[in-house]
Amino acid sequence: MDPIRVARRWPMVAVAYTAMLVGGYIWWILQPPVRRAWVLAASSTDLEHLEHVPWRVLPASSIWSGSPIGWWVVATLLCLGALELVRGPAVTIVTGAIAHVAGTLVAEGVMAIRIAAGEVSSSARHLLDVGPSYIVASCAAAVIASPRAPRALRIGCALTIVPLYVAAFDFTDDGQVATIGHAVALTVGALMARSKWFRSQHLHWPHLGELVDLRRAVFQR
Fold first, then answer.
1. Which domains can be identified in the chain, with CATH numbers?
2. Burial degree of 18 (CB within 10 A; 0-12, 13-18, 19+)
3. Residue 181 to residue 103: CA distance in whole angstroms
4. pTM reported for the whole predicted model
5. How far apart are CA 139 and CA 209, in angstroms?
6. Separation CA 14–CA 82 (nearest Å)
7. How far is CA 58 from the centre of its chain?
8. What would the pLDDT profile of 94-133 be if each residue is shown by its tens digit?
């Protein structure tokens, strides 16, 4: 295996995004509590911000991981890295970006409808909504739903998002934004994996194909 070729195929999108999360977390914990709260509030993709500064909060909200940074490091490296190894950086970026934007807009749109109908208070326009979970969930779902992905990567992604799945699906009024957003993100990932464009892409890392063929040969003996 050529080291230079492997380096070129290394999941750089996953590494770069993970490094961004870690860097943001280190900067965040070094700030006083008041500034921490202000930064999160200013980056939140709540209704108030989406109506006035969507260009700022949509990218900014994806870089704040919160306290369990260790879990996010594992989740982003595994789920984004797996999709990047299987389908390449472009598919990974597109899948994560669509899921993050679509999950946010659909979830907050439903909240806007509920506010207009009087089901929840207008204070819900300011609910805190930050984090990389829509991106991670969509990439994991894309790997799991991809029939050509190696089984080990599919199982690893499935196990990784179990805590996210359990924590995200909260049907209380405060938790419904995250619940709907994660459902949309998972759907986006699964649809991407089954799309004609996704299926037409070759394995980004050729050695994965060799690994799959080798494992099949071993288990068929």
1. 9-210 (1.20.1540)
2. buried
3. 4
4. 0.86
5. 19
6. 9
7. 13
8. 999 999 999 999 999 999 999 999 999 999 999 999 999 9
